[in-house]
Amino acid sequence: MIETGWSSITGVNIIFGLIILTVGRKLFWLFVGFIGFAVGFHYGASVWQLQSQLLLFGIAMLTGIIGAVLAVFFQKIAVGLAGFAGGGYITLNLINLLGIRLDQLAWLPYLIGGVIGMLMLFFIFDWALIFISSLAGASLITQALTLSPGLELGLFSILVACGLVIQTVLYRKSVPRKEKTNYS
Is this prediction's pTM over 0.70? Predict the structure, then answer.
């Protein structure tokens, strides 16, 4: 996680991460808003080198609100943006978990992960949303904690598995019986 001197952001990341991890598919607009917040906070701190915690939080809130509004009123655009932002964010987090430092080329895996995330959401929306929101929720939680790399990767894997199971169970309960037989 980016060190900002603001300890309460750790709690916010964990709460956002748990919500995204467990109900990201069900509350799509909230997932998009949280992703917008996380991306705004991360890039406000690292790319724009913002020192003001209030300004950093304001930018993160603004990007989150924009994402949530897009999700409600312009779902197809929001799906593409959420898939791109989520895929890129997850890719960079996975690269970081593996201990790979890219420096100047960080945009390339973000771009590749973003395109993959966007395509996944367009073609297999529900299952991709379950997968991406589980990865994003686990990323937010593990970034908020200060753990050894091996422990962080293990916790990340466990959280992703839990998110996939919880959201799959919730999704299966919400799909009418007739649809289940068509796809199962």
Answer: no
